[in-house]
Write a structure and sequence with these properties.
The protein has 236 residues and is of the alpha+beta class. It is built from ten helices and four strands.
């Protein structure tokens, strides 16, 4: 199966969760906007392409099927790429964890854009500082302690006792948080040994390691979801 991934060309963003699954599995895919420009997304977004119009990227085209939303895409890809348990309960648990990751990703974005996504960060910096304080002090420890507990409850190595797309998504989440809050994460890492070990293991998986060293892996930057603004990273 050849997949077509549709996401904005200049950032990792939410599309990176899909890329990591495709890369880890060695799947054949085309990153459409990077190959053909961002305009290739528009027929889907404005409804001129057949089928239900996605609200926003990422979306995946496989044959005639177009699927939007990270969780829905990974739930679809998981069985085909052997990145989800075969049981119905395992698949549901994977999706549950992925949606919890998505909840944190949304809060991460709203940390640097707490008032309006359409406004510049510089125009909402004071509100962002207040939001970041709550993120560093309350929300990050709560979410990450939950995922640490999930690992501990399932043997310590994987959230679902076997490698899955959830491992890859946690890797991307933790990498982004390391970039966005390097000082705060340095404080939190000693309390998260299982997550820290998972992040290291995923990074050296052969296909993932090759991807991370390739030009296909864009660097984190201040245009994506995970943005490093020193004034938002408080712990030293």
């Amino acid at each position: 199966m050849h997949y077509e991934l549709y996401y904005w060309s200049g950032i990792q963003g939410r599309g990176e969760f899909i890329r990591l699954a495709l890369e880890d599995a060695g799947a054949t895919y085309t990153d459409m906007a990077r190959e053909h420009g961002d305009a290739v997304l528009q027929p889907f977004l404005d409804g001129t392409h057949a089928g239900l119009a996605p609200f926003a990227p990422p979306f995946l085209k496989t044959g005639r099927l177009v699927i939007a939303q990270v969780g829905a895409i990974l739930d679809h890809l998981g069985p085909a790429l052997a990145l989800v348990p075969q049981t119905a309960s395992g698949r549901h648990q994977a999706l549950q964890l992925q949606l919890t990751i998505a909840d944190l990703v949304a809060e991460v974005h709203d940390t640097h854009h707490p008032i309006a996504a359409s406004a510049y960060y510089e125009d909402q910096r004071d509100a962002a500082k207040a939001r970041a304080k709550a993120m560093r002090g309350e929300r990050l420890p709560k979410f990450l302690a939950y995922f640490e507990g999930v690992l501990q409850a399932h043997g310590g190595r994987h959230p679902l006792r076997e490698h899955s797309y959830v491992d890859l998504s946690l890797f991307q989440l933790l990498s982004g948080l390391d970039y966005m809050f390097p000082q705060r994460m340095q404080v939190l890492w000693p309390t998260l040994p299982l997550l820290h070990a998972l992040k290291a293991r995923v990074a050296v998986r052969p296909n993932v390691a090759a991807y991370l060293e390739s030009e296909r892996r864009l660097a984190f930057n201040t245009q994506g979801i995970f943005r490093h603004y020193p004034e938002l990273d408080g712990d030293r």
